[in-house]
Amino acid sequence: MESSNIATANIDYPRGITFEEVWAALKETREAIKETDKIVKENAEIMKKTSLEVDKVTRQMGRLGNSFGELVEHLVLPNIEEKFNALGFAFTKSGPNVRVRNREDPNESFEIDVFLENGDFAIAVEVKSKPNDDDVKEHIDRMEKLRRYADKRNDRRKFHGAVAGAVMNDTIRKYILKNGFYLIEQTGDTVKINIPEGFKAKVW
């Protein structure tokens, strides 16, 4: 019988996975799952705290948006007469929450957050935490009602309007000034009257 001339090839067969290696892989997987659970729980706690803080801020802004008593009493009213008089207005009287009731036509009744006056003219100030376009339009309507109310009583004083706010952007600033209202902004614990060059207050 002739001997074979074919050489036997050296083949490396894959070795089997040992129990120790499987166990180590399972331990790593288990640790990874535990770490993932920990991260998920931490994120859930953070989200819960964040949600509570958002709710708290929302409630505070809601109270501020619906009631301007504190904003008027503690920020605007103590400073506004002084600020306007420094510009030469010489107001002799100011007060918050001036209510005008027209018994003949309830639709003509209105309320002014802050009213500054002297013998010649007066300024009706609308106070908002964050004024918007609708607030400005409502104040225009309020000023027209004030003019009609005064005319019926032979009150010939000139009336100006102003909008005061704690938070404003450039768009609402321009809209307020465009409609002839004085612009009053919060700055720290006081307010400033923003009167740009060329501004002309509307007279009602």
Report helical residue fraction.
Answer: 40-55%
Inertia-based shape = elongated
Number of domains: 2
Structural class: alpha/beta
**Beta-sheet strand percentage?**
15-25%
Element pattern in H and E: HHEEEHEHEE
Straight-line N-to-C gap: 128 Å
What is the count of β-strands? Answer: 6
The CATH architecture assignment of the largest domain turns out to be 3-Layer(aba) Sandwich
CATH fold type of the largest domain? Trna Endonuclease, Chain: A, domain 1
What this model shows, in words?
The chain has 204 residues and is of the alpha/beta class. The protein has two domains: 17-66; 69-194, 3-Layer(aba) Sandwich (Trna Endonuclease, Chain: A, domain 1), CATH 3.40.1350. The chain is 47% helix and 21% strand. The chain is built from four helices and six strands; from the N terminus they run ααβββαβαββ. It has helices spanning 19-66, 69-86, 133-152, 170-178, and strands at residues 93-100, 110-117, 121-128, 158-165, 182-187, 190-194. The protein has a six-stranded mixed beta sheet, sandwiched between helices. A hairpin with a 3-residue loop joins strand 2 (110-117) and strand 3 (121-128). The protein is elongated. The N and C termini lie far apart (128 Å).
List keywords for this structure.
204 residues, alpha/beta, Trna Endonuclease, Chain: A, domain 1, six-stranded mixed sheet, 4 helices, 6 strands, 47% helix, elongated
In short:
The chain is α/β, with parallel strands linked by helices. It folds into two domains: 17-66; 69-194, Trna Endonuclease, Chain: A, domain 1, CATH 3.40.1350.
